[in-house]
Every structure is written in structure tokens, then in C-alpha cells.
Amino acid sequence: MSAGNSKTECFSFDLPAKITCPGMTGECGKDCYAAKLMRVYKGVAAKYARNLEFANSSQMVSHMIEEIPTSCQFRIHVSGDFKDAKYVRNWIKICKARPDVIFYAYTRSWQVKEIWQHIRKLHALPNVNVNLSVDDETGTPKCYKAQEYRWCYLTKTDNTPDWIRHDDIIFRSNHLGQKTRRKNAVKKGLNPNDIAPLIKRLGGLVCPKEQGQDTPNFSCAKCMLCIDKPKIPAYV
Ligand code: SF4
After folding, report:
1. Is the CB of 94 under 6 A from ligand 1?
2. Could you give phi then psi for residue 95, rounded to 5 degrees?
3. pLDDT on residue 236
4. Which comes out higher in pLDDT, residue 149 or 236?
5. Sequence ranges of the domains in the chain
6. In this structure, which of 97, 119, 126, 228 has its CB flanked by the most CB atoms within 10 Å?
7. Please, is 189 exposed, middle or buried when counting C-beta atoms within 10 Å of its C-beta (0-12, 13-18, 19+)?
8. Interval between CA 213 and ligand 1 midpoint (Å)
9. C-alpha of residue 222 to centroid of ligand 1, in Å
10. pLDDT band at 213 (very low <50, low <70, confident <90, very high)
């Protein structure tokens, strides 16, 4: 288990990137931040490899039920994904046994039919929210009842396709560049909003951490946009 970083302030459990991602697309695989971390920090790669061994062991369920801190927010995977149906069933057992904890996840494994039917059961628990990760390669999610889930779209160009809905969430791969442009504008005495305006909407709602400004003392645990279950009428 990892204690949260300053972005999430949520605990997490992580697996090695890519090899546990059956729904990986060329788009997400190419720029995968977790795979980069694993390349740069050997300790991180070793930890995720140990986690995978643990996830395949008979101890996973009982140990996680005992060890997840009380009444926290818990992100299932900052790195990795729901790798197979049995693994999702383990999470169903863990989440059912810990109603005091709010669990959330992003997944591209919705593309694998036999995994998706179990992810749906996981999402149906009152203390779990699963978001569907999408990109230009996945296109509109076509899995059963996909409309009832929040979709999280990764844009590399600050464009979004017309199938993104008003309440979906947009992640930008170039928000750090925008922060730098804004800082440089301030240094030159220019108005940052003229040089690099904040982007709050691109069809869907841009993640507040990626709108192009520093957001001190703000985290996923405070934001909750990805953590709360979506209001279904907004999505159908
Ligand atoms: S939208 Fe909010 S909850 Fe989702 S990643 Fe961004 S800060 Fe975190």
C-alpha cells in the first residue's frame, strides 16, 4: 500500500504498469507516467513487482481488509489496472468488508468483456466508484451500461472529441507547459491570462489540477470529482 502523494492525498495499491493493463491502448502506453517512474526509480519497479506477487497470493484479501487505514479514501491503482476477473473479485471482497473506506479507480479494462462484468459488480457497491478511462483509440465506451459511468479522457492537444459529455473529466498531458508559460508571463510583467488562459472546460470538465495554475493545498481527496459516484441522469 502507498500513502498518497500531494496530488491525491489518498492511499493506493499499485501494480506494474503495462503488463497488468489488458485494456492498454497505444496512446496511454506511449506516455504512461507509471512506466516512466518504474524506469527511473528501480525501487518503485521492485515494489510494484512485489505487489503483483502479493496480488496473486491467497493473502491479498485478508491482509488488505486488515491493513487499509480506517475511514480513508483509497485509489485502487495509481499504476496498473484490473488485470483479470479473479483480481477484481478480490477487490469486491475487500471493498464489501470495508464500508468505512471510499474506493475509486480508473480503468481501461472495461474493454475486456469477462473482466467488465466483474468491474460492474465492484462499481455497484455503495462505497466504490469506477471511472472509465478513454482516449481517441478506445473511442466511446461500448461496454454494457457504459453511459452510466464517468469517462476520463486524456487529451494531448487540448482538443476533445464530440462524444465527450459535459460532466466527463479531461486530463491534459500538456498542463505543465501551460504552468510554465503562465509563470514566465508573470516574470515578464504580462497578464498570464493573455498568454496562457486557464482552461476549465474542453467539452467535459478539465481536472482542476490540470487547468494550468498551481493549486496549493488542493488534492483529489478535497476535489472528489473522480471519487464521488456520478449522478446518473447527467450521464444517460
Ligand atoms: S478531477 Fe479532482 S479528483 Fe479527479 S484527478 Fe483531478 S483533482 Fe483529482
Report:
1. no
2. -65, -35
3. 64
4. 149
5. 1-134, 150-228
6. 119
7. exposed
8. 14
9. 9
10. confident
Instruction: Identify the residue whose C-alpha is closest to ligand 1 atom 4.
Output: 226
Burial 7-36 (b: 16+ CB within 10 A, else e): ebbbbbbbbbbbebbbbbbebbeeebebbe
pLDDT digit string (tens) for 140-160?
Answer: 999 999 999 999 999 989 999
Name the CA dihedral angle for 205, 168, 172, 8, rounded to a multiple of 10 degrees.
Answer: 90
What is the radius of gyration, based on Cα positions, of the chain?
Answer: 18
Instruction: Name, of 27-41, 111-125, 220-234, the range with top average pLDDT.
Output: 111-125
Residue whose CA is closest, atom 6 of ligand 1?
207
Which contiguous run of DSSP H or E holds residue 118? helix 113-124
Q: Which of 130, 121, 82 is nearest to 227 (CA)?
A: 130
Question: Could you tell me if the CB of 208 is within 6 A of ligand 1?
Answer: yes
Report, as an integer, the average pLDDT of 93-116.
Answer: 98
Partners of 105 in the β-ladder: 130
